[in-house]
Amino acid sequence: MRLMRLSLRLVLAAALVSPGAAAAHEYRLGALRITHPVLRVASPVSKTGAGYLAISNSGRVDDRLIAVTTAAANRSDLHGTIAHGAVMQMRAQAGGVPVPAGGRVAFAPGGLHVMFIGLKGDMPAGRMIPVQLLFEKAGRITVQFKVEAIAAAAHNH
Ligand SMILES: [Cu+2]
Fold it and tell me: Residue 72: its pLDDT value, please?
């Protein structure tokens, strides 16, 4: 009962800070939970976009996201972001993204992201893009990345 009340309070708190929280979607693959994949584009006709999501691992075995593929783009690469002084630069995430046992990895602006290059067709806000995630241990899952509009300036590439 106490736990239920607590989680309800968390849901309400999340709804207050983020109007999009009610639309959050998530997936399970074994011990992995994949939360709220979004594809942010500067405009509906953008040819590139950045994908964000969170992955948590409630299991006892380390896992690793090793590939992301989609028919909706020519390429989809795992990128990290590193700072060179005041300049942020993205680079390919060699070897994939570790998802340690008991851990949680958040892809977020200014950090890890999926770089979608050569988007095919218009990307209006709300469109759902099927994307396959391949994990070293847990295997493969298809998730839907929800398209969101951003101001072009917010994406520092
Ligand atoms: Cu990038």
Answer: 98
